[in-house]
């Protein structure tokens, strides 16, 4: 009897406890639902929390799959859903709906979205479960979204930024060009297709492919290839073919063509590999991207950012569009260079297609005015899509127009002699007025040098040889003896004061100038060779022009600049030369032109000062090597710029005076036009 009573009592207690256990409140259920919402757990939200009416109206794919796809397509992230909590003593009537203000925030590819709505929970019995369930509709995805509406994304293309020179002349701009194509009903002659393929440098198959596109109509213009605005020859050849014509179209233009080709670079269609890398930055498969030169280096600044808009296309015939979020397009920057495009063009043309390079700098500010690589390619050709035959022609050209020479470094020859003299004078080892007795065409210190001897080109120079005569006659023996006098350590330290052995502080990557491969001088012979710009010494053409600044600024070298936005007159090196010694070297370099062997620079209209140089590149045993000619110069009366020019293989052109003639044309034209 007692046992039976115990069982009955236990059952009564359980029933009592069950009756006392609190039913989950709508606030509790909403809290759980929102946790799943913030975590993007749509399947759990649909299965366990939506009320019967919602599930009847919206199938699982309308709720789960749609939201998952929208999150992916619209790059929805940082979802933050909150609700306004009820009072702690709030009473809930299961016969009535429970309403809660819900706040929704998220980031999308078109910008942030934020709204507040009232969410309703209803008390329902499902099978043997009684609980509160959420009443849902698409407006909880986006506030204005209703059943049957579509969510769409539109993109507004940004406008690529332009590159201008210091005088706002166009270097790389958004201009126009031409689409060359055909109207099929007029393009019927048997030979026309092959003729057009030959003119455009494309295959007949590629023309057939474009004519076979699904949208093509007999009376519609079908683009086949592109042409730059100034390529009148190509337009004339193409339109001479029956049925071929052209239409103007928006296009990137490079008005200075080859003269600025290596500096400007060009744009081209984005590759699949690059698109994968940059798609998070808003690039699409229809975008163009910088491929070479400044177009590539400045891509991030030039490209800008496309605008993106998320809209709801309302249902019905007259459905309106409602904007959910929008980020307007941000156009690329306009970038102004320190380059003087007309001076660059003049310099490029003066070199007459010879292989070489030139640089010009403002001696008072460090601004780079010219940066030429000759010969060059026309960036308009590449931007339009260069043909295989044309690319092969450029690639196989013995002058190598695809090689960027201003980025490389070369043995400077005798153009380094003023620097050697400056180092010696500053060290107190070289007295410019003291003459040396130098006899004969060759010299060596003593028998320990073996077969090595220093040669000079003008043994007729009258003794004694002082600094002025050494510059005028470009006497290698004089400078070799002065370098030996100042010693290895002093000479190397002096070269480092002029920037040798360190990265050139410039916007573009340029090969640093070097004293030698190891950065040291291992023998007296190497010291002698280096004193007149041979041995293993190499200099970059922009650095070479910059090294002449201290002769005009009384000892200051400025950081070379490329962008007008940069602060002018940033000191790179200072105290490398006294005012007194600078004046001596200026006088000597003027005498090089007046009395020496740079007579092509002895202009009647411009009083040029400077130094020539010839660097011999060793050939095979028994063969004479190639000679590169240099001239570094300025207008001694109005030194607006220092010009350094190098031309390869001048051994059959009369030496470095050949280069001085090219440079002189630049100075004369500049003076005439300014």
From TrEMBL:
Penicillin-binding protein dimerisation domain location, by residue?
157-315
Q: Where is the Penicillin-binding protein transpeptidase domain?
A: 357-661
Subcellular localization is given as: Membrane
What PROSITE patterns does the record tag this protein with?
A: PROKAR_LIPOPROTEIN (PS51257)
Query: InterPro entries annotated for this entry?
Result: Beta-lactam/transpept, Beta-lactam/transpept-like, MecA_N, NTF2-like_dom_sf, PBP_dimer, PBP_dimer_sf, PCN-bd_Tpept
What keywords are assigned to this protein?
Membrane, Signal
Q: Give the superkingdom in one word.
A: Bacteria
Q: What start and end residues bound the annotated signal peptide?
A: 1-24
Q: Residue limits of the NTF2-like N-terminal transpeptidase domain? A: 25-149
Which Gene3D superfamilies does the UniProt record give? DD-peptidase/beta-lactamase superfamily, NTF2-like, domain 1, Penicillin-binding protein 2a (Domain 2), Penicillin-binding protein 2a, domain 3
Q: Which family does it belong to?
A: Belongs to the transpeptidase family.
Name the chain's protein: Penicillin-binding transpeptidase domain-containing protein
């Amino acid at each position: 009897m007692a046992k039976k009573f115990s069982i009955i009592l236990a059952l009564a207690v359980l029933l009592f406890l069950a009756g006392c256990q609190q039913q989950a409140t709508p606030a509790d259920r909403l809290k759980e639902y929102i946790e799943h919402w913030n975590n993007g757990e749509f399947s759990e939200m649909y299965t366990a929390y939506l009320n019967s009416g919602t599930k009847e109206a919206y199938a699982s794919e309308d709720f789960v799959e749609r939201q998952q796809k929208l999150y992916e397509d619209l790059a929805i992230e940082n979802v933050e859903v909150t609700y306004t909590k009820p009072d702690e003593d709030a009473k809930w009537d299961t016969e009535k709906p429970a309403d809660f203000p819900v706040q929704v925030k998220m980031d999308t590819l078109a910008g942030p979205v934020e709204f507040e709505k009232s969410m309703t929970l209803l008390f329902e019995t499902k099978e043997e479960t009684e609980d509160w369930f959420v009443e849902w509709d698409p407006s909880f995805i986006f506030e204005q979204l209703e059943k049957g509406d579509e969510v769409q994304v539109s993109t507004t293309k940004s406008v690529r930024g332009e590159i201008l020179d210091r005088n706002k002349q166009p270097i790389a701009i958004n201009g126009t060009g031409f689409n060359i194509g055909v109207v099929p009903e007029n393009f019927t002659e048997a030979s026309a297709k092959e003729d057009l393929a030959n003119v455009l440098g494309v295959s007949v198959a590629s023309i057939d492919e474009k004519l076979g596109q699904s949208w093509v109509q007999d009376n519609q213009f079908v683009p086949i290839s592109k042409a730059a605005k100034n390529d009148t020859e190509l337009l004339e050849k193409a339109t001479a073919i029956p049925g071929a014509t052209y239409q103007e179209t928006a296009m990137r233009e490079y008005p200075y063509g080859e003269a600025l080709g290596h500096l400007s670079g060009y744009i081209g269609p984005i590759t699949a590999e690059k698109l994968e890398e940059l798609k998070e930055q808003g690039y699409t498969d229809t975008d163009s991207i910088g491929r070479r030169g400044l177009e590539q280096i400045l891509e991030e600044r030039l490209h800008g950012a496309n605008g993106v808009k998320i809209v709801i296309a309302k249902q019905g015939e007259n459905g309106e569009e409602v904007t959910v979020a929008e980020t307007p397009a941000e156009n690329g920057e306009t970038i102004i260079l320190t380059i003087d495009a007309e001076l660059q063009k003049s310099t490029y043309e003066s070199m007459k297609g010879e292989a070489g390079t030139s640089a010009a700098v403002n001696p008072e500010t460090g601004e780079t005015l010219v940066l030429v690589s000759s010969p060059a390619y026309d960036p308009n050709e590449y931007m339009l899509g260069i043909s295989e035959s044309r690319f092969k022609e450029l690639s196989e050209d013995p002058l190598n127009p695809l090689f960027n020479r201003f980025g490389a470094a070369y043995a400077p020859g005798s153009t380094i002699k003023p620097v050697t003299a400056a180092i010696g004078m500053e060290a107190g080892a070289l007295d410019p007025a003291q003459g040396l007795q130098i006899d004969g065409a060759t010299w060596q210190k003593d028998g320990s040098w073996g077969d090595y001897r220093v040669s000079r080109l003008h043994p007729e120079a009258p003794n004694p040889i002082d600094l002025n005569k050494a510059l005028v006659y470009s006497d290698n023996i004089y400078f070799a003896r002065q370098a030996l006098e100042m010693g290895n350590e002093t000479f190397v330290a002096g070269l480092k004061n002029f920037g040798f052995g360190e990265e050139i502080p410039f916007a573009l990557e340029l090969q640093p100038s070097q004293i030698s491969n190891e950065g040291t001088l291992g023998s007296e012979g190497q010291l002698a060779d280096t004193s007149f710009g041979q041995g293993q010494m190499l200099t970059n053409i922009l650095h070479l022009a910059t090294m002449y600044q201290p002769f005009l600024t009384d000892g200051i070298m400025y950081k070379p600049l490329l962008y007008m936005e940069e602060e002018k007159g940033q000191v790179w090196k200072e105290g490398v030369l006294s005012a007194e010694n600078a004046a001596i070297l200026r006088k000597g370099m003027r005498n090089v032109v007046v009395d020496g062997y740079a007579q092509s620079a002895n202009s009647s209209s411009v009083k040029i000062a400077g130094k020539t140089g010839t660097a011999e590149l060793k050939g095979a045993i028994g063969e004479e090597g190639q000679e590169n000619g240099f001239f570094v110069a300025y207008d001694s009366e109005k030194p607006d710029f220092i010009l350094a020019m190098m031309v390869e293989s001048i051994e059959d052109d009369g030496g470095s005076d050949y280069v001085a003639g090219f440079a002189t044309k630049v100075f004369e034209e500049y003076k005439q036009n300014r």
